[in-house]
Request: fold
Amino acid sequence: MNRKQQGQTTQSKAPTIAVLAAALLLHAAGPTVHAEVSAAVSLQQAIQLALEHNPRLATFSWELKAREARVSQAGLLPNPELSFEIENFAGSNEESGFGASEQTLRISQLIELGGKRSKRRQLASHQRDASAWAWRAARIETLAEVERAFVAVLAAQERLALAEELAGVGKTVLQTVEKQLRAGAVSSIDKYRAEVSLAASLIALQRHRAELASARKRLAATWGSGSDTFSRADGQLRAAPPALPPLARLQQLAEQAPALARWESELAQRRSQLALAESRSTPDLTLTGGPRWSRESDSRAFVFELSAPLPIFDRNRAGTLEAKRRLAKTVQEQRAASLRARTGLATAYESLASTRAAVVSLRDEVLPLALNAFEGATIAYRRGVYSYLELVDARKTLFSLRSEYIDTLAAYRAATVEVELLVGSSLDEISSDDRRS
Reply:
C-alpha cells in the first residue's frame, strides 16, 4: 500500500488504493498488460489487469457512457410536426372533385414552459454524475478486492514455504533419531513418533498446496481470468506496521471518500427530479401555423393557432409528491450510510490496531524466544539431555507461532485495506500529510 516497510524483511513499495483510483479515473497512460500472464505478477500488475479486464467495472463504464448520451438527448428541443389537410373535396354538387377544395399545410411546434428542458438536462447531468461516483467507488472496491486476493496468495505462499520447511525439519529429525537409535541412545518408539510426525507434515504440505491453488484462482478471477497462469505472486507479507493516525482524523476523511461523497450527487439528482416534477404543473403551448390554398377562389392565406391544455384534472401533484418523498428517502439513506461508514471504520480501526500490536509482539518478543528454545532443545537432544518429546514440543511451538505470525500479518494487511477503503486514502499518506502540516 505504498508504505515503507521495515523489520526482518523489507517489502517493496506497493500502490495505494487512493492514488491508483485517482490516477486511473483519468485513464492514466501506461503499458498495456494482457489478461493472461505467465511470469510472476506484482500487486501493481494485478491491479492494472483488474482495472482493464474486470467484468464488473466494464458494466459501470458502459452505464456512464449511456448517461453521457442521455445528457445530450435531454437538451434537445421537441421535434416540430408537419401536417397537411384537405377540406371540401369529393362531395356533392359544387364540392365534387377537388374544384372547391381547400388545402392547408401546417407546422406545429411544442413550446415547453416552466424550464422543463433545462431541468430535464440538469437531471440527466446529475444522473451522469451519480453514475460517475458509483464508478469511482466500484474502482476503489475493485482495488481493495485485488489487494485482498493478492495478500491471500502471499499468505498461502508463506504457509506453503513454512510447511515445506517443517517437512524438511521432520526429515532431519528422523535422521537424527535413527542415528541416535543406532547408537542406542533412544528407543524405537522415538523413531515411530518421528515417522508419524513426518507423515503428518507431508499431509499438511499437500493441504497448503491446495489452498494456494485456490487463492491463485481467486486472484486471477479479479481480472476476469478463469485460470491462474502466473507463476507466483511477487511480493512479501512481512511488514513493520507504522503508527496509526487518530481515529477522529480518519473519520473526517471518510466523509470525503467516494462511498459517502456520492450521496451528495444522489441528493442533487433527487432535487432535480423534484424541480422537473414541479415544472410539469405548468402547461406547455403548441404553436401552429402555415399557408392555406383555396382552389375555388384561387386565393392564398395563412392560418395561425395557439393551443394549451387546461390543467384541470392533472396538475402532476402526485408526481411532485412522489419526488418529494424520494428526496426525503435519499436524505435518510445518506444518514444511514454515514452511520454505517463511521461504525464500520471504528470497527476496522480497532481490528487494525489489535493486529498491529500482535504483529509487533510476535515479531519482536515471542518468535525470537521460541526460536532460541527450539535451537537449544535440538542441541540438548543431540547431547542426550532432552527427550524426544521435549524436542517435538519445542519444534511444535516454534512452527505454530510462525504460522500464527503469517496469519496475523495477513489479518493486518486485510484490516489496512478495509480502513483505507473506507477512508479513500493511504494511511501512510495521511500520516505524512499530518507530519508536514
Observations:
- Residues 1-34 have pLDDT under 50 and may be disordered.
- The chain is about 65% helix and 10% strand.
